[in-house]
Structure formats: C-alpha cells, structure tokens
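input
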Amino acid sequence: MKGPLFYSKILLFGEYGIIKDSKGLSIPYNFYNGALKKTENPSETALKSNQSLRRFVEYLKNINPELVTFDIESLAIDVNEGMYFDSSIPQGYGVGSSGALVAAIYDKYAQDKITVLENLTREKLLKLKTIFSEMESFFHGKSSGLDPLNSYLSIPILINSKDNIEATGIPAQQNGKGAVFLLDSGIIGETAPMVSIFMEKMKQEGFRKMLTNKFIKHTDACVDDFLSGDIKSLFKNTKQLSKVVLSHFKPMIPIQFHELWRKGIETNDYYLKLCGSGGGGYILGFTEDIDKAKLSLTGYKLEVVYNF
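output
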C-alpha cells in the first residue's frame, strides 16, 4: 500500500503576523513530500511514526462530529497493521511536516470530504482550514490549519485575513539573479515553545504596537509586491521586515545567526527572515543576486526555491 504524495510548504510571508490578521502567502514546495504506507519490515522511523499515528487516532475520535467525521474503523485497522507516514519532509524545519501528514489522513479517511476538484469557494476553503486547524492542534497545541491546507490543495494560498483566504497564482519564475532561498540552520526548531514566547510578548502594549505599525505593515507590503511582481519594492520591504525581526523577534533566531542576519542587512547581499516559527530549522533568505549571497554565505547550505 502507498497513498498519494503530499508536499511540504513554505510560508513566504506572514509567520506570527497571521495570528494577528496580517496578510500571508504560502506556497507548496515539491522538493519534500510524504505518503501513508505499510511495509513488511518497518524501520525504526516507521515504527515511531506508527506509534504517533496510534495516539492521533485516539485524538481524532474526539473531534467535533459536526465539523468532520472519519472512517475511524478503517483508520484504526490500517494503523494496527503498521501503517506509517513515509516522509522526506524534515521535522522541526518550518516546512510543514505535520501538515502533510494531516492532509494525507484527511484525504484517505474523512467522510464527505471537500475535494480539490470542486469549485473551491471561500466558505469551503475556510471550512477546510478550520478542520485542519483542529486536526493539526494535536501536534502543535495551536495551529492555523494553513500548512495542511497548502499540502492538501498543492496550490499557493493567499491569506488576506483570518476569515478571508483564497487560492492564488504567483508570478512565473524568471531566470534572473534574484532568488528566494532556504538556509539550513542545522538545528531542529520546536513550534510550541516559540509560539508561547510570542504569546507572552503579545501581553506588552509596545510589542503589540510594533506588530501592527511595523511587522504587519511590511509583511502586507511584501505580499502585495511579490504578487504584483514589483521586485524593487519587494526587496525594500523585505529589508525592513528583516530589521524588525532582528530587533523584536530575537528569541526566534538561533543565537549563532544573529550576526549573519545583521551582515545581510548591512551589506544588502541578502535579507533573512523567519521560515515558520523559527527557533531553528530553515531560515528564509531573499537576494537580488544569488551568486553574491552564496559567496557571502560560504560554508552554509542554501537551497533556491524561487527565482526572480
């Protein structure tokens, strides 16, 4: 048995801001994927995944049936027969490993599911997001539901606000020197502790003001610039966003990257921002000249995900 593939995602813009109604833009990243599988000789990883699925089945039994119902019987049988999630998506890297798993389970076991082939109205997208938010909360404590939504639909998602999301098209990639890239921090990040640091900071009025006046302002501008293809303005706003994150989101940036972050802003060789909740995993980079950025970041592992 091998189920369909579900891909990783990258939230280009909107991390943390979308909790407070900023815009966001999430794109599928087909480099990594996962699928539900059964095998005769499970590896250590497969057994661990199967154990996690057993706990997940118990959790799904208690989800509000008015929201979604599952064929729990079939799911339980498959899990008892050793089903696991076979995934190349790195965990704790901010590219949606639990999101892909949630999408795969919904796709195979949800009853009356909303399918990708339907006319995806805003209501249907919001309903899917709500279902996925409930399902993924098992892994993170609190989830927006966006990662599984992106993985399930495999199309870019534009978040206008909490209750206003739509499938969108993004400008075709060009062969220019500009690029969005992933920088591997080599550290596994944990989502839950980072989100609780953020929630703690939200209790301070100064932080809340900064979030609205600076962080959300530049995030929204970046989304608009990216979608309209205004590259010049995009880099101007990304630089501002990078500065704001370095000043106000320091705990989310691994300490050994503070200097590298600052160097990018000072030299304009690249601008770094959080990829997901931070604390490790991937760091997202934007550059107008990928060769310059590679030279500047010699010794670090870079993966280009989009070319301007």
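quick obs: The first strand starts at residue 6 and ends at 13.
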